[in-house]
């Protein structure tokens, strides 16, 4: 996956792995054009959470699905970035990543304080048992 072994995923490496750049920007929380190991882990966690919220499996979270999970629609509009009444995976992961970054969760200092000495994708896979070769959540476009 990390073809040049620099510990990050470039857009080109993403496209080689997944065939397109769908979801790349959602995973690239800091917008620096590469996905760090911390961004990858956070993105994978958010993709799973999105899948759990998407009760009917249609690739989007409706207000009703949000309420069923959280008990009210508080916060729904913050995640519905384009205001179309549903939250797609890109919106969900982008909003979650922004929250994590604002909270300082994605900084290397925070990872180090948590005891992580991850220096490469291989290190993350081994330390956290993350299958980094599995694709991110694939969402079918709705037209």
Describe, in short, the structure shown:
With 143 residues, the protein is mainly alpha-helical. It has one domain (9-128): Recoverin, domain 1 (Orthogonal Bundle), CATH 1.10.238.
Topology:
Blueprint: E1 9-10, H1 11-18, H2 24-27, E2 34-35, H3 37-53, E3 60-62, H4 63-70, H5 76-79, E4 86-88, H6 89-102, H7 108-113, H8 121-128
Antiparallel strand pairs: 1-2, 3-4
Helix pairs in contact: 3-6
Describe this structure in words.
By secondary structure, this protein is mainly alpha-helical. The chain has one domain: Recoverin, domain 1, CATH 1.10.238. 48% of the residues lie in helices and 7% in strands. It is built from 8 helices and 4 strands. It has helices at residues 11-18, 24-27, 37-53, 63-70, 76-79, 89-102, 108-113, 121-128; strands at 9-10, 34-35, 60-62, 86-88. A two-stranded antiparallel sheet has the order 1-2. A two-stranded antiparallel ribbon has the order 3-4. The model is unreliable at 109-143 (pLDDT under 50).
Strand tally is 4
Q: Assign an overall shape.
A: elongated
Helix % is 40-55%
Largest sheet, if any? 2 strands, antiparallel
Given this structure, which CATH class is correct? Mainly Alpha
Corresponding CATH architecture:
Orthogonal Bundle
Q: By helix and strand content, what is the structural category?
A: mainly alpha
Largest beta sheet: strand ordering:
1-2
User: Which blocks of ≥5 consecutive residues have pLDDT under 50?
Assistant: 109-143
User: How many individual helices?
Assistant: 8
Give the SSE order as H and E letters: EHHEHEHHEHHH
If you average the pLDDT, what whole number results? 75
Q: Specify Rg, calculated over alpha carbons.
A: 16 Å
């Amino acid at each position: 996956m990390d073809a040049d072994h620099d510990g990050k995923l470039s857009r080109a490496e993403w496209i080689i792995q997944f065939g397109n750049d769908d979801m790349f920007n959602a995973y690239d929380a800091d917008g620096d054009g590469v996905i760090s190991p911390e961004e990858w882990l956070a993105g994978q966690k958010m993709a799973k959470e999105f899948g759990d919220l998407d009760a009917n499996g249609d690739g989007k979270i409706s207000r009703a699905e949000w309420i069923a999970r959280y008990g009210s629609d508080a916060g729904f509009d913050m995640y519905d970035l384009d205001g179309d009444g549903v939250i797609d995976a890109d919106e969900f992961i982008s909003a979650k990543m922004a929250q994590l970054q604002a909270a300082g969760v994605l900084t290397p200092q925070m990872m180090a304080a948590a005891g992580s000495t991850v220096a490469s994708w291989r290190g993350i896979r081994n330390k956290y048992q993350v299958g980094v070769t599995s694709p991110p959540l694939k969402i079918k476009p709705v037209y």
